[in-house]
Each structure stands twice: as structure tokens, then as C-alpha cells.
Write a structure and sequence with these properties.
Strand content of chain A: 15-25%
Mean pLDDT of chain A: 93
Largest sheet of chain A: 8 strands, parallel, barrel
Oligomer: homodimer
CATH topology of the largest domain in chain A: TIM Barrel
Number of strands of chain A: 31
CATH architecture of the largest domain in chain A: Alpha-Beta Barrel
Strand order of the largest sheet of chain A: 12-13-14-19-20-21-22-23
Shape of chain A: globular
Structural class of chain A: alpha/beta
Low-confidence stretches of chain A: 1-16, 679-683
Helix content of chain A: 25-40%
Number of helices of chain A: 15
CATH class of the largest domain in chain A: Alpha Beta
Number of domains of chain A: 4
Distance between the termini of chain A: 47 Å
Chain lengths: 686, 686
């Protein structure tokens, strides 16, 4: 049966609804927001944080609607979990809103129930009635509605409502005066009681929309990538997990919370690549960690030179103790000598000459890598085996995976595998390494990837950065696409960094760290200003760790480690920098200066960042910041505190002079300090 | 069972797709556009006109996709109609496009099929191969793919493909040189043949989206509303269908094509309203035509004073002969003496005092009108009867209905009734008279109303008009909401018209006629400059025809009939004014002057309209019109021809001086005349 990509709808089929439908459902639910592709994919949120739902609901005529937000955790082994309901409040323009807080990571569903409420309609009308006769008749109508509510109630409530109904009916029959009748009919506590027993026979129900609640790190994380094999303090010696363990305190001190390793598995010997991607390896060459699998094992094994499974587990424990999580690379591809190739030849594409089809994008060839054939007849076994690789490392204590080129494997596989892994372990995070076309990247995010690499590396000018981050913070992906931005990776040494000018490394880091709540660097290359490309204009590093061991001089006086530590400490102290939704750019009358503001959800924490994009020259200009937009009385002076330099500036009005010398620090990260008088002061306006 | 408002989705349920799904479907259909609420409602188009569909499709890796647009008419009595397929073309950015032309009014469905095509992937790879060994192996792979295509083919095609496969295989085995192999493998006519037999086992299918094709009048119509009872040439005598017949040539001459009557049914006598909405009618008062039903009959009957059913049918025929369609008012409500009240008391809401609940919006009361109770137990019979009213008038030759206050009747009823009526008569047009909240108006358009009244009457300043018509032409409703704009109605005499200044009546008419392809006026009140309100600030006409007969002096020297005829003739002659999608506003440095351009689909016809919004003073200013945007070489002079005044102006460059004297004509309707050298000259850029 073919895959159906979008939800099917009975509106497409020409049936006669009068026969099968309940025509008395008069409430309309026109839209439920947020939602991804009409519920085909889950919206993402963070457990323990408020999730807000808006619905467009109305009915014909003037009757009063009641609208409920319904939500529940997805069914688990114990079966269906009953839905909870939150009354929605009308914001105006037929938009209703309510929120709930998913208590723990996992999958949830939410939907809307709405009904025309005769009891509330009657109350609403009665408040507007002035004619005494009308009020008397209305009291009688109300007595009937209240009696009906009594009929739906139980115990004491039933008796109370029945008594109220009788009293109202009697007062109306005895021609009590209008004021008395109105007072009795509009009794507030009794109305609240009656409202607890509404007539929902003809309620409208929206479809249920799926929701994924992640843990907080999905929203706010700070990544450090390193090659364990280069972690040895002794030049030329292959690094080990123990060497990495020795580096953990320094990495934690820099303020990172995710430590990500390229593949740690045995590396193929057949067609192994040499230094600088040479087609033929020289004796002693260590090969690419992405050419996975050799006689020692495949995706579940560890390269013996790095250490044992036990040592890996010890490393995970040591990292955890320092607030660092180990993230592993998932690269679903095989070296020619991977055990899978012999054990499951049917998982690969064979050529008529009896060889396996290696990876290629003609005329480029990757002879050391065999891709899996996701269209093979044995695809179910292949999927199950690949998922078992994820399960294996989850079992070893890993909860974060960076997935290599997910866009070259079947999308359906990822949707299934991520959903299944997270069903058992909803705390697992997947980062999609797909530097590809926009719609493909969005699809991966929709189908389950927790975070996604971005085009940040290639967004360099003020206009590029402004457009791109406006899209990331406010564009159509906000409900499912969580950007994770990297100034460099082992594959991408952007031309901007080729000069090695520290100000450029500093400004790109500040941009990444303040524009995006999730960011990472590939170190020690970054903090040690590694900048030589393999050739002019190349984005490949010269002597890349991808193909050889490297030795890093952490004691370099030019190291940016302290600067990075400061930036990351600011991120950790300031909730404004731990999410993206509040980002707005601020006008500066100099294209080399970029300025933007972010605020925490409660508006208390406001950070204004200004970066000099020119690494060579002092740049100055006027930044526009409406004081009212950050909760400051426009007539009052307020203080901005540069958290990088610890300087404090007194600002007043809407225009502020900025001067940034790249030879000192090319950026301000300014905390806005102001006297807060009342709640409105917290306001931060997008 | 409760109504499900949005399509259900299996993504919301946590199943394990590996068991039930075909995992080898690697093509992804991420979006199909246009679509209304994921297919819950149909998109609207016009039969005989190109309907363009865009889909976002891609797959993992570098394989080549084939994408088909599938469409078919909805099933009819003869059963399912097989889908036709149109190959989609890639526009870039993973967006594919194709179009089809629904041949006749009716309901259609469209969807997308996409699959990873091994044959096309092989061809694409082969073109990029340079290595001779690779080419030889590729030729062998190709021979296998071609043999597979042969297996799917029949007759001669099968033999041809099989021979090609053998030839290629043999040439590869015999080590033919690379150029020979490539030439044989990439043979264009043979490739086209093989492409006709693709392997679609693992194709992805989108959901099918519903489409409604209307006839052309749904897109382009010019309405004239009149009260037949005021059509008598003799003051004080009740007008008749025969009197209307006598007026038809004058109305047709003004360029209208729809002639719409308020209700023509017997008018209730109980609680009849008097002149100027007096609570008690005086003897001889004719009452409101919207208080439908009396002893003579209800919604299927004709007020005897107007004429007989036979005379009505004659009127319909006479109008048709002049290119005029008669549109009837559908007001589903009853006067207290409507036969339904006695025959179906259960269709109304009864109050405890034994009276029927009349229409009210406290404290406002409409004692002469009983609404139907759409929540009554007998709702099925009520729906069926109301639909039979529509069927009755369709039987009498009416194909256009203006529906009174549809938003005070159950939405589900309209969706059903409109769908059912149009199933038998897809040429029927429904205009929704819902002057209410935006989401409610949009819902009515989504569920089936062909055209919708708008807020035009209350959009008066340049900024209001610009914002509102930009939304109507380019906002989210473009696929389902067709605006029909009215400078006046019997219920709305806007304050702007209270002065009676002709320039105001002229400018509002030009705005309506040129901003919207569908527009109408309530006449003769409009062309005769009727402007006195019932009270200061009131939107009600003094001595409104809603409650009394009127006599109109068509011979008035102040009549705008000739001006209206000219404007409507321009609309009929210029396709640019017969649709809304091309509308764009042009900057003018005077807020009393509003300018905008429209073009026909083929770009050949371009109309620039400029209106002076100030009815008292000459206004002048500079209009910006980039010549390139209307296909004119910026260095060339071109002519604009004012179709109202017949003046011609020579324009050059981007800034054009405009001067409009409201005492003459407060508007230009300018046809852009230019020499067309080649196709690019036709370009009209939004």
C-alpha cells in the first residue's frame, strides 16, 4: 500500500452528511495552533514549561460558547491515559487560549472541545434584559436550564441546583419584581456550580494533535566536539578515553555541557584514506572515523586504541559528574571490512562486477564507505539492526546523538527509529547533521530530530544574519525546528576564519552563543585559532583530524578558552539567552555593527548584544533601543552592564552610541538593569 | 458521535510503523498547494481556466524523483472517475509544479504521486561519469534497468526495450569504448520510451485535496439590487414583475449582469413593521420583505402583488435574453404567520409563556421574525425542507442566491445544503451576506459560499483601502474567499454618502468596480444619489424601501446611470479588472489620491486606476509606476489612455503627475498602451 503523506479527509469524498452526521453540533473549531502539517507531525516543547494552545472557535448567532483544551500523555503499556481539560479563555477575534505544562519528557496529544452552552447563553442574555416581562419569562427559561443541570449533577450538587431551579421558577410564577428575579437568577456561586454540569451532547471535537515534550537541554545546550584520538598529551601517541577524562575539567570550565565525539568505532582498513584525504593510506595512517567497521567490530564496538567499553562507561560517569553529557556520532554507513558486509550482503547494493557500490556523488567517490541500501528486500531487518545500534549506546549511558548526514538515509527510517527510541527513553536527543536544502532540513526536524544544524557558518554579513535568524526565531519552523549553530566543524573551516584573526573567532563565537540557545564549536581547533585550509578557498582543514592524529597546545597564550568560558557563563546566568523566540534585531546606523535583544519569558532578564563584524577596524554607530520595549520609562536613565568587559554604561532615550574595538573585544553583551516598579515594567515587546 | 472538525491523522497515535508500513517508500511529499485547512475544505477555481498546483517533493540522497499531479472529477452516479496524470516540473528548491484545466463546473480532487526512479537516477549518474570502467559497469546496470522496464511494457515497446537492453549489455561485455557506450545508453527516444514504464511499486501518494470549479461569473460579476415593489412607473402603485421587465433594458445598458431581488415571498401580517421600522404598521403598510410567510404561502410562494410564478419565469427569461441573471434572496426565517409555524411548531423555540421566541439580540427585538431552531429534534426534516426551497427556485430557473445572514444559521447546514444543491447544479452561485467577524466570514467561504460580502463599505481612507484590498487579493483567503464589494446596500448607507455629493458616489463606485472583480450596488438609490439617513449618524436610509414602496425618478439629470454604464463597460472590455490576484498599490505622495494597477493573466492588459478620495477639492500628486513592471522599456515613452475621459497622456520614467478634479470626474481608469516587441514585454510583476 502506498504511503499517505498528508492526513486523509472525509471532505474529499462526496457523501451526504445529513444521513450520518449529528447536525446539531453548532460549535465550530476552525483552527488549533500550534500544529505541524495539520497534525501529521508533532509540535515540540519542553517538559515542565508552559505550552500555550490557541484555537479559533465560534458558533452561529449570539449564543455563548464554552471551549476546553484537552490534553493527555500518549498511551503507554497500561493503555489509554484519560484526557485532562483546561477551560480556554477568549482573547478576542474568536481566538481562545489556554495552556498546560507537560510534566515529563514524552509524547502527548492535545485537542479542543467546544459546545454551544444553553445555560451560559441564557445568563448572558439575562444580563442584558431590561423589560420586566422578558425577565420573568427568562427566569422561567433559566429554571428549566438549571433543572437540566441538576439532572446531570450528583449528590449535594444535584439537590442544590434543583432547589435553585425551584426557587427561580416559583419567584417567576409569583411575579417577584425584576431586580429580585435577576439577582436570584444571576447568583454567581450557583452559576459556577451549574457550569460544572454542562450539556455537552452536541460538542465539537477537534482532531488531536501530537506533541513531543523534550528535556530542557533540547532548548538550551552548549556543545564541544573533539576527536578523542587527538586528546593525548604526548605528541604522536594515539589518544584514549583516559586522555579525554583528563581534559574534562578544562572543557567543563569553558562552560560546555555536551561533549560530542566523532565515531569511536573500529575503522576500516580496506580503502582507508590517508592524511589530508589521500586516496591511499600510508602505513600508520589512522583513517577516517566515519569509515566504520573492521575485523574488531562495527557500530556497537569501540576502537581498541581508544579504550574498552568499561573505560567508555567510566568516561561517561566522569563527564556526568562535571555536568557534561557525552554525545556520540551516528553514521549509518560501513567500511568495506565492516562485519555487516559479510553477514548481510543483501543490505548493500551490488554492482554487476561483483563489487559493492561505494558512496559516490559522481564524479566524487568515497571508496572507503559503503552506504546501506534502504530499498533492499530485507529492509525490516536492516531497520531493526540500525535501531539496535542506538539502543546499544543508550544502554551504555548515552542520551545524545549527533546523526551524520541523515538526509542520505530513508526519511521513514528516522521517523520510526527516533520515535521508537524515545518511546522507551524520552530523554534522548537527536541532532541532525544535514547541511542541505531547506525543505529537507525542515522535514528531518518535523519527523523527529530534536535539534538541527543550520546555515549559520555561511551567514556572515549583517543582512544575512538578520534575515536568517529572524526566520529561525519567527519563521514557520518555530514549532519543530530547533537550530544548533556552529562557527566551525571538522568539515567546515569558513573562509572568514582563514586569516586566523582572533577578533573574527571571537565575534563568530559571540554571534553563535547569543543568537542561538543551542550552539557548539569544534575544538580545540576553535579556541586555539586553527585556521589553515587545505587549499586556497577550501573549507577543509589542513592536516585535518578527520584523517590523522593531532596534538594540541592548550597552554597557548592565544587560546580563547577564557573568553569562551566567560561567554558561556553569561549564557548560563541569563535565561534571556536560553531560548530564541524573543529575538529582535535593533537598528544600528553602521553595517559593520549588528545589534539585537533577547528577553526571558517573564521579561525580567533582558540582554542586548552588539557585535563588530569587522575584525580589523574600530567601528562605531548609534544603536536604536526603545526604552519602553525593555520595560524602561523613556524619561528615566537606566544602566546597561557589559557582561564581557564588566563596564557599565548609563543610557537614556532611544539612541545609544556604540564603539567596538576588535583589538580588545569585538562585542558587548549588555544586561539591561532598571528599577522595576510594577509588573508592566517587565514587559518586553517583540 | 461528536463532529470532528479537522482531519484525523495516524501520526497522533503511537503505532510502530515498521510492522504495517512499506518502508521502501523513499519519496517525500511534504506539501501540496493550494489547499484549505489540509483538505478539510475545497479550493475554489474557475472551470475552463488553468489551475496550478505546487508540491514540495524530495527524497534522501541524490536519486532522481518523478512527480505526477493526479486529478479527477468527483465520483458521479456512474461511479468513480479514473484519475488523470500530469508530469510535474521542478521549479527549484524542491518545488514541483503542474497545472490542469477543470473542463466544467463541479467538484474535483487532486493529489500528488512521487517515486524514486531507478531508471532516471541511473541516466542522471551516467551523464556525470567520466571513468571508462565506471561507464562500462554503469552500462551493465542500465541494461538491467531497461530490461525491467521491458518487463513492464507490452507489445512493440516491450520488444524495443528488450532489444536495447541486450544491445547495451553486449556492448559493455565486449568492452565497447566509453563514448559508444554512453551514446547507446543515453539514447533520448529510447529513454522516453522506457520512462513510460516506470517502477512505481514504492510510490508515495499525497492525500487528495478537494477542488470546486465554478463558472466564470463566480470570479467576475456586476450586481444590481432592486426592490421589485418599487419598480412601478406610477407613484404609489405596488410594483410588479412586469414593471421590472420594463426596467431590464436600462439595467442591462448600465452594464450589470446580475439583478438581485430582496425576498419576493408573501409578507407576514402579524407584528408587521411600519414605515421607517415603526413597531406598529399602519393600514396599507407593506411590511419588510424579510418577514417571510403569510396565509398565501412561505418561501416557495410569490407575493401576489408582484405577480405569478408564470410571470416570474417570464421575467427570468426576459432578463436572460439581455444577459442579466436574476438572483434571489434566501432568508431562512419566518413571519409569525408563516405556514411553517403551524405545520412545524417543533422547528421553533417556544417560551414558557406559550409564545414562539422571536429574533432578538437583547435589548434589540425583531418581533416580526421567528428564527428556526437548528437544534430541534426534527433537524433532519428542517434541513431537508430548507434545501427544498433552494431546489424549488433552481427549478424556476434561478442560479444565483444571495443568502441573508448565513452566520445566524448552523454552519453545518450550509455546508451540506450548498454541496448538495451544487452536486446537481454546479452552476449555482451563493453569495454570503455576513457582515460579521473575520473568522466567521472566512468559515462561510470555506464551507461553500461562492462569493462573500466584505467590509468595503467601512474602508474609506487610503490606508484602510490599501490594507484591506491587499489582504483580499493576497491574504490567506485567496484560495476560497471571493470578495463582492458594495458601496451601499438597503441596510448600509455609509456616512460618507450622507452629503449626497456626486463625486463621493462616483469615487466609491470606481473603487468598488476596479478594486474587486465582483461588485454591486443597491439601486436606483445609488445612481439617483439617495443619501438621507433615518437620523444623524445612522446607516439606515430615511423612508427605506425595506418598509415602504418608493418611486424613483429615473429621468433625473443628476443620475449616475451613464457614468456607471461607462465604468461597467470598461470592466467588461478589460480582463485586468476581471480578477483580483494581480492587484498592487502604487505610491502617490498625496493621501487623498489612491493608485493601483491590475493586469490580465497573460500580462497584455494593464489598467492603472487613480481615485481622488476628496469629493470637494482638486487633488494632485506624483504617482510612482515602474515602467518595467508593466512591460515598458524604462527609456521609452508610453501612452496611458483614460477610459473614463478618453484623454491620452504620454508618460515616461517612473513618476507621473496626477491631477483629479472631483467636480468633473474624481478618477482615472488608465489603460497602459505600449509597443510589444517580445514576450517579456508582457511581464507584469507583482
Amino acid at each position: 500500500m502506498p504511503e499517505i503523506e498528508t492526513p486523509s479527509t472525509d471532505a474529499a469524498t462526496a457523501t451526504t452528511p445529513i444521513a450520518g452526521t449529528e447536525g446539531r453540533v453548532r460549535a465550530v473549531i476552525d483552527a488549533v495552533l500550534p500544529g505541524v502539517d495539520g497534525g501529521r507531525f508533532p509540535v515540540k516543547c519542553v517538559a515542565g514549561e508552559r505550552f500555550t494552545v490557541t484555537a479559533h472557535c465560534f458558533t452561529d448567532g449570539h449564543d455563548v460558547l464554552r471551549v476546553m483544551l484537552r490534553w493527555c500523555a500518549d498511551a503507554d503499556e497500561a493503555g489509554e491515559i484519560p484526557a485532562r481539560e483546561v477551560p480556554m479563555v477568549m482573547l478576542g477575534n474568536d481566538e481562545w487560549q489556554a495552556h498546560f505544562t507537560p510534566p515529563a519528557p514524552g509524547r502527548y496529544r492535545y485537542g479542543i472541545a467546544a459546545w454551544v452552552d444553553p445555560f451560559e447563553s441564557w445568563r448572558h442574555e439575562l444580563t442584558r434584559r431590561v423589560d420586566a416581562d422578558d425577565i420573568r419569562i427568562a427566569a422561567q427559561v433559566g429554571a428549566i436550564e438549571i433543572a437540566a443541570a441538576a439532572g446531570r449533577a450528583e449528590g449535594d450538587d444535584r439537590a442544590t441546583l434543583a432547589a435553585w431551579s425551584r426557587a427561580l421558577e416559583q419567584a417567576a410564577r409569583q411575579h417577584a419584581d425584576a431586580a429580585t428575579l435577576k439577582a436570584l437568577a444571576l447568583d454567581e456561586p450557583l452559576a459556577e456550580l451549574a457550569a460544572r454540569y454542562p450539556d455537552r451532547r452536541f460538542e465539537a471535537l477537534s482532531a488531536e494533535l501530537p506533541l513531543v515534550a523534550d528535556r530542557e537541554r533540547a532548548r538550551f545546550s552548549t556543545w564541544y566536539e573533539l576527536f578523542p584520538r587527538s586528546a593525548s598529551p604526548v605528541p604522536g601517541r594515539h589518544g584514549t578515553f583516559q586522555d579525554v577524562e583528563a581534559r574534562l575539567p578544562a572543557i567543563a570550565q569553558m562552560g560546555f555541557d555536551v561533549l560530542y565525539f566523532p565515531p569511536i568505532h573500529p575503522i576500516g582498513r580496506v580503502n582507508r584514506k590517508g592524511r589530508n584525504n589521500a586516496l591511499v593510506a600510508q602505513p600508520g595512517d589512522v583513517g577516517s572515523p566515519w569509515a566504520i567497521g573492521a575485523a574488531e567490530g562495527g557500530h556497537k564496538a569501540i576502537l581498541p586504541e581508544l579504550g574498552t567499553a568499561q573505560e567508555f562507561r567510566r568516561l561517561v560517569g566522569a563527564a556526568t559528574a562535571l555536568g557534561l553529557e557525552i554525545a556520540l556520532d551516528i553514521a549509518f554507513q560501513c567500511a568495506p571490512d565492516h562485519p555487516y558486509v559479510k553477514e548481510h550482503p543483501d543490505w548493500f547494493r551490488w554492482r554487476p562486477d561483483g563489487t559493492v557500490q561505494y558512496a559516490e556523488n559522481p564524479p566524487k567517490k568515497y571508496q572507503d564507505i559503503y552506504p546501506f541500501n534502504f530499498e533492499c528486500d530485507d529492509w525490516r531487518a536492516l531497520w531493526a539492526e540500525l535501531k539496535s545500534v542506538l539502543d546499544h549506546w543508550v544502554g551504555e549511558g548515552v542520551r545524545i546523538f549527533r546523526v551524520d548526514n541523515p538526509h542520505t538515509k530513508a526519511f521513514a527510517f528516522w521517523e520510526w527509529a527516533i520515535t521508537e527510541v524515545r518511546r522507551a527513553h524520552p530523554d534522548v536527543i537527536f541532532l541532525a547533521e544535514a547541511f542541505t536544502r531547506p525543505k529537507v532540513m525542515h522535514r528531518l526536524a518535523k519527523l523527529g530530530f530534536t535539534q538541527s544544524y543550520t546555515y549559520f557558518t555561511w551567514r556572515n554579513t549583517k543582512q544575512e544574519l538578520t534575515e536568517y535568524f529572524t526566520e529561525l526565531a519567527h519563521g514557520p519552523g518555530v514549532d519543530y525546528f530547533r537550530p544548533n549553530v556552529w562557527p566551525n566543524t571538522p568539515d567546515i573551516l569558513h573562509e572568514q576564519l582563514h586569516s586566523g584573526v582572533p577578533a573574527m573567532f571571537m565575534s563568530r563565537l559571540v554571534l553563535a552563543a547569543t543568537l542561538s540557545a543551542n550552539y557548539g564549536i569544534y575544538g580545540p581547533a576553535y579556541e586555539l585559532l586553527e585556521h589553515l585550509p587545505r587549499g586556497a578557498g577550501s573549507e577543509e582543514y589542513l592536516d585535518s583530524e578527520k584523517y590523522q592524529l593531532r596534538h594540541w597546545n592548550h597552554a597557548s597564550p592565544y587560546s580563547l578558552a577564557a573568553f569562551i568560558a566567560r561567554v558561556n557563563a553569561i549564557r548560563h546566568a541569563h535565561p534571556a539567552l536560553q531560548a530564541n523566540g524573543s529575538l529582535r534585531f535593533l537598528p544600528v546606523d553602521n553595517d559593520q555593527l549588528i545589534g539585537y535583544a533577547k528577553a526571558s519569558d517573564d521579561g525580567l532578564d533582558v540582554i542586548v548584544t552588539v557585535v563588530n563584524l569587522d575584525p580589523y577596524n574600530v567601528q562605531s554607530g548609534w544603536l536604536e533601543l526603545d526604552p519602553a520595549s525593555v520595560g524602561v520609562d523613556p524619561g528615566q536613565e537606566f544602566q546597561v552592564h557589559d557582561l564581557l568587559s564588566d563596564q557599565r554604561f548609563a543610557w537614556q532615550g532611544g539612541h545609544h552610541f556604540i564603539r567596538l574595538d576588535p583589538h580588545i573585544v569585538p562585542a558587548h553583551i549588555l544586561a539591561v538593569r532598571r528599577h522595576l516598579r510594577d509588573e508592566r515594567d517587565f514587559a518586553y515587546f517583540l
